[in-house]
Write a structure and sequence with these properties.
single chain, 99 residues
């Protein structure tokens, strides 16, 4: 049963990727805002509270990548990026004038 549940989750993640990305962005922003509010209540200026919240939270892009890893879509992301890069490279090669 666990395998079917895992498979269903991964297919959903694949098919509804943009929604999951939006949900993740909302959740990451909420965590940063909560951390910033904590520093504001402690009496820090808004700029300093924002800076400390980001420092305490760590890398947002790293956290995003970790979440993608957990969803099991890293292979797909890498494959799509590689494919897009190769397509762009071959299109550029076809359109460049030959000497």
């Amino acid at each position: 049963m666990r395998i079917l549940s895992e498979l269903r989750y991964r297919v959903r993640a694949l098919l509804h990727r943009s929604q999951l990305e939006r949900d993740m962005d909302i959740e990451l922003r909420a965590h940063l805002e909560l951390e910033e509010e904590k520093h504001l209540r402690a009496g820090l200026s808004p700029d300093e509270a924002r800076r400390r919240a980001r420092a305490a939270f760590g890398s947002v892009s790293g956290t995003r990548e970790d979440a993608r890893d957990a969803r099991g879509l890293v292979f797909l992301d890498t494959t799509l990026q590689t494919s897009a890069t190769r397509s762009a490279g071959s299109a550029a090669a076809r359109s460049s004038p030959r000497a």
